[in-house]
Write a structure and sequence with these properties.
Strands 7-9-10-11-12-13-14-15 form an eight-stranded antiparallel barrel. Strands 1, 2, 3, 4, 5 and 6 form a six-stranded mixed sheet that branches. The chain has three helices and 15 strands. A hairpin with a 7-residue loop joins strand 11 and strand 12. It is rod-shaped and about 105 Å long. The chain is mainly β and 302 residues long.
């Protein structure tokens, strides 16, 4: 059976030798009193929550004793003050004192605070601050294009060929609207675009808008999905004609923060192109369907 019990008041404890005691009213300048107490090796007993309002929270602790009565409670409080001094506390707030009726064993609970200085405001992290209306990020990515097809169509005759492995680079400049939405510009370049048996290769240039949905994690990994849409041009080899049109893309990826403002990305994506050109008054479709694997590095711009 457990009952609440208060054996002695703070005034009574102050009258007993060896019980370090310092009372502070809610109206006293907390920082000044706290600094004096710490300099004297004391821990101030806060009479109520208002006395430690705005102070830095240093955690809690419990103390037990088998000594009954006031002597046991004094011993527990002295032990808790020692714990508070070790943690750098200037104030201690007691609560939840209980005693066992059967054998008189007691428990005292204490909460520790440092009131010497106002609590430091949390560091503003532009990538994790949901109150920020807009922020920006700049990143670049190297891409491997291991799978794809090249599609051509002339006078209703269609030919589709598997594309050889190609490589690409892309950049991404985006405005982030925390916590989950971002829009930006995503230019890209694919080099070595050709069918498996061809000797010469084309180059594809893309200028896309990108919309991303995903949380920018404060630390560790964050996942996202995206869609792209924009203009696309296939520059044929040997100064040939350019097949121009638009493209649509989808993909997913993960980011990992490497420090407060920098991050790396890993991405998988697919893009379908709808390009065509006119040669000697003949409309020719020359388009691409490309999968890519990307690895990138970026930085948030506060």
């Amino acid at each position: 059976m457990i009952r609440s019990c208060v054996f002695v008041t703070c005034a009574a404890l102050g009258a007993i030798p060896g019980a370090a005691q310092a009372q502070v009213s809610p109206q006293a300048p907390a920082a000044q009193a706290a600094s004096k107490a710490k300099a004297a090796g004391q821990v101030i007993e806060a009479a109520n929550d208002a006395a430690v309002e705005g102070c830095r929270d240093l955690g809690e602790a419990d103390q037990y004793t088998s000594t009954p009565g006031a002597r046991g409670q004094i011993d527990m409080r002295e032990a808790l003050k020692t714990t508070g001094r070790i943690r750098g506390a200037s104030h201690i707030r007691y609560s939840g004192h209980v005693t066992l009726i059967d054998d008189g064993a007691q428990r005292e609970h204490a909460h520790f605070y440092d009131c010497t200085t106002p609590p430091a405001p949390p560091a503003t992290d532009p990538a994790d601050d949901a109150s920020a209306s807009v922020m920006a990020a700049l990143s670049g990515q190297l891409e491997l294009v291991p799978v794809g097809t090249l599609h051509s169509k002339v006078d209703m005759q269609s030919i589709e060929a598997d594309a050889a492995t190609a490589f690409g680079v892309s950049a991404n400049v985006e405005a982030i609207l925390p916590p989950y939405f971002a829009i930006g510009i995503n230019p890209g370049l694919v080099l070595g675009l050709k069918s498996g048996g061809a000797m010469a290769s084309a180059t594809q240039l893309d200028l896309r808008a990108r919309m991303r949905l995903g949380h920018v994690a404060a630390e560790g990994f964050g996942e996202y999905g995206y869609v792209t849409a924009g203009g696309s041009w296939i520059l044929t080899p040997n100064d040939g004609d350019t097949s121009a049109g638009f493209s649509l893309g989808v993909g997913a990826g993960v980011t990992r923060r490497v420090d407060r403002l920098s991050f790396v990305t890993f991405e998988l994506g697919f893009q379908a192109g709808f390009q065509n050109m006119t040669v000697h008054d003949t409309s020719i479709e020359l388009s691409s369907r490309l999968f890519h694997i990307g690895l990138g590095f970026g930085r948030y711009l506060p």
